[in-house]
Amino acid sequence: MTDFYLLEPIAPGPAWAPFAGVRPIAELPAGIWKIRERWEAVLQRDTTALVGDHIEHLSGLLSTPCRGLAAISGPAIVAAAWFAPSGEPITLAPDTVRLAHEGRSVAWLVGAGETWSGPHDHGPAAPIDGVMLHGVFDVITALERFLPEDCADFLADGGDELPAGSIVLGDPAGVICRGALVEPGVVFDVRHGTVVLEEQVEVRHGTRLEGPLYVAAGSRLLGSHIRASVLGPKSSVKGELSTSVLTGYANKSHDGFVGHSVIGHWVNLGAGTTTSNLKNTYGEVNLVVQGTRIETGRQFLGSLIGDHAKTAIGTMLPTGTVIGAGANVFGPGAMPREIPPFAWGSAGEEMQTLDGFLKVAERVMPRRQVAFTPEIRAALSATHRRLAQR
To answer: Dihedral of CA 265/342/357/20: which sign?
Structure first.
């Protein structure tokens, strides 16, 4: 049996904020499917473990084991979590030593009796198609690349009969309801892509859904215009949402625009929270994290918001804002473009205590029918200890 390991960025720098050390990069979505799931589909095997010194403390949050960086004995395959593969399953030739995308190695095959000690560019390589992620901002790049085809894949199996009173622009076959509850008067625009609604999704009257769009089980769409996005499980959305990823259990239940943004687990956006996703100059959006300027190559980029972060009502976020995990964002005036993890207030001068942070998480998670287990407490405590030091 050949083990399969997913390698996290070995020394994740500012480009991987706000998720480095909070959530494995392999668990971020690239289109509908997580990077890990894309690798598993291409290689036709389950992940043995996620590998990285900065994620060992996260095992209590995940079903996939996490382990530190160390030598790996064959037979094994080691793949890069910073690459999201596309396409059908691949067949590996006997002499293949690595997989490469545009000349860069993204996976390594380790034979029986051999040991892998780190990434390399030696030996015969087979090509693989996909998206190279240079930072969290490229989760949006992957969304733009993969979402249309990911949603279209659902057309083969179809869905439930179109709910009565629905208004469809385009071919009604492009609306895939799989146990969703849709009120009369919802508008489906499938002229540019498929709309997929999973089981127990609730869509209120007055909502316009524009494909490609995927909404995971248990989410609630409460009105306004939602397009070209992926909504993770049990998320709530009202107001305008465009070209964004909500990884799951996020709450945006009020008006306000969110565009070209990545929103982590358990984030709560206060009423009227709005992101800017385009500079007045129409130029490239750059990030500034921990004093480092990061070139994204993107014209459209909103906010990157880490797990368990909260924003106050009326919060206005500048183009290319990064909000660290657990931050509680409030205060007068314009918000800064970087807010540290576990900050208490937008100035970032005060910190949430561990006890205060855990109390809030313990109140919030059962609201989405997720138990606050000792394992989750331990993982969140370890994350606070690692990231709240300044």
So the answer is: positive
